[in-house]
Structures
1.
Amino acid sequence: MAVVGCGAAAGGTSAPALPQPSPAGGAVAEGAIGTAAAATEAAPRAGTSASASAPAEPLAGKVIAIDPGHNGGNYRDPGYINRQVDVLTEHKACDTTGTATRSGYTEAAFNWDVSKRLVKILEARGAKVKLTRTGNTGVGPCITQRAAIGNKAKADAALSVHADGAPSGDHGFHVIMPKKIDGPVDPVVGASRKLGVAIRDAFRSGTGLPYSTYIGSKALDYRDDLGGLNLSTVPKVFVECGNMANPGDAAKFRSPAFRQKIAQALADGLQNYLT
Ligand SMILES: [Zn+2]
């Protein structure tokens, strides 16, 4: 929050072990997502014509965990969201509500929309995708659980989707990778860096957004305070797609076409890493 506020900073990572109170209803159409696998069957690859140019199913056999940061209902249950969880390097809140644009477009909604688009693309390319939440009306899961979901799926790659809440004059995107912490993430720190660079390169060329003006080096940042990274045993990175408090970045985020462009870029980055 303070400096970089999407909650990645404050805690927008992964979560505790309570089974997510999944908002079953809601996402009928958009969301047969719980297990992306289910979504695949449920939703024929229709709307995904965009991937037509890609070779048949380049991601066949790959498992990918997609973690849309925060959740639209987090603000309703501060008791749950603020409870402290152990991320190995510290104890911090289970999650945060995330940030929002000045016009009120929430980060949770943005993360969810981009993730849904991303899942469709990845599944059309043959990947099996696991999502950490099933809609944008529920609460949680905590950052520790978000990491556990990717671990349990034995994901070949995991990506947490966020947008930042920095001072309004700052803009641009960045990727956050794990550091060694004498913990479970250590063996995948190297692979996570490769994944992070692949995501950074694809995001830059696919969206045209500039590297962050306020954090990291060439849009690459490393942190040891995020539960979603510290607790991951599979290659994992966070992407902060831009700064929601910046009018320029926010205007782009509000465009569905631009969110599709972001999803496409993220899919390309994942594919470049995995193939
Ligand atoms: Zn966030």
2.
Amino acid sequence: MKCPYCGSEECINKSALNIYLKAVETFLKKYINIKFKYPAVGEVGICKKTGGRIYLCPYCKVPFKAPFLNKGEGHFNCPNCNKTLNVPASNKLVC
Ligand SMILES: [Zn+2]
Ligand SMILES: [Zn+2]
């Protein structure tokens, strides 16, 4: 899996990635039939060269750059597969 910023494999945090994939698998099974309930993207590392956060889509499992988010907007679309995703919880806490 390559960093979406610099293309290096080094930037992805493998343990964070594994934890996220397990958690999201449970989520997808549980909420598959519930509308308006979206899985949060995973934070799977920070680029060592650019300092950018690396996010992972739970559907297509492609890492991508932190999206530009409008204030008050709780979700966005994956740049790869266009599914609706929630922002990570850590971002919501920032005021
Ligand atoms: Zn990188
Ligand atoms: Zn996707």
